[in-house]
Amino acid sequence: MNGVANISLAAESRMGRISFIDLAAQQRRIRPAIERRLQAVLDHGQYVAGPEIEELEEKLAERTGAAGAVACASGTAALIIPLFALDVKAGDAVFIPSFTYNATANAVIVTGATPVFVDIDPETFNIDPQDLKAKIAEVREDGALNPRCVIPVDMFGSPADYAAIASIAAEEGLSVLSDGAQSFGGGLNNRLVGNLVPATATSFFPGKALGAYGDAGAVLTQDVRNLEEWKSVRWHGTDDARRTSVRVGFNGRMDTFQAAVLLEKLEIFDEELAVRRQIAETYDTRFSAFARPQRHLPGAQSGCAYYCLRVKNRDAVVADVNKRGVPTAIYYTTPLHKMPAFAEFAPKKDLEATKAVSEEIFALPMHPYLTPDQVDYICDVVEAAAS
Ligand SMILES: Cc1ncc(COP(=O)(O)O)c(C=O)c1O
Q1: Edge to edge, what strands does the sheet with 187-188 contain?
Q2: Residue 4 pLDDT level (bands cut at 50, 70, 90)
Q3: What atom in ligand 1 is closest to the CA of residue 77?
Q4: What atom of ligand 1 comes closest to residue 217's alpha carbon?
Q5: Among residues 216, 234, 263, which one ends one of the domains?
Q6: How far is the CA of 104 from the centre of ligand 1 (A)?
Q7: What is the CATH number of the domain that holds 103?
Q8: What is the domain extent for residue 165?
Q9: Same structural domain, 371 and 320
């Protein structure tokens, strides 16, 4: 989701400049508080493993209802850490959607395991439990790989169908690792992302709903017994004294400055999320008649990191909308199994819903500093272009 290739980041309209994501407005609001936090780090000088790291881990667990959290270097590190801890390795099959950011596949491949691409639901854009079952059966029949793990991705912030996935995983003896890089703040049936499955990776890339001022991420768990091992993997697989490597790990640490920034942003996160949700509701109401906004599962609340919808003639609609000063992005034009790096893992039969969605989807501005007038203007422009 970090790609900027297809994003027109801001554009001029008669509403003034509309930003796709407005980090500057947020910074204007909380800059003195952030400066105080950064100053504190400069004063104590613990740039790695400073006290802000543990403070953030506690706050993340408290905010999500998770049993604990491990702050780490990025969302990608947050995926790799639990995979290493599970000893996922060469010969293992890890089931992931193809309609996702490349990090989900890369995290699997660096362990030596093989990503097996699964189709998505064409309305929720999340991994399709029926196709997951089918792909597990294919791998078992083929016999070359050992089905080990499934990584559902909460696309654009909307939780995947964890009830169905957990039941398949239990039947098949697979571990579930949630890629919640886009869904911090989201929830399902009154539980929040971080507390939906045993292990959730999230990203605090600056453009995420909760974003640092650099790379950062976290792994959240429902089981405190995971914490010690994850912290060890994060620090080159060392023991408590950090001298002896007791397992293979890597430098997956978050730096203290990022924790300091995130602690301050967490203070305003709920307020910002409420505004994001209002905007998403307005968009849904305005677009449902002529387009296909992302559908959320019953009982699901999106973290609203991104707002995406499907339209026919996507490229013409996007060009028209951009001309009228509304910036857009396309997540994702190319499913992973069509990319050169991952083509060797492409399924024998194409993934029909993945293909259809990638041809029709685009993203609209989504951030809490859009004014109501700007939101109305965006709705008018999209309606004129697409209906
Ligand atoms: C679905 C998904 N997974 C993983 C990641 C990786 O996160 P990071 O960029 O923090 O490594 C991202 C980031 O955009 C993402 O969107």
Answers
A1: 191-192, 187-188, 300-301
A2: very low
A3: 11
A4: 10
A5: 263
A6: 7
A7: 3.40.640.10
A8: 29-263
A9: yes
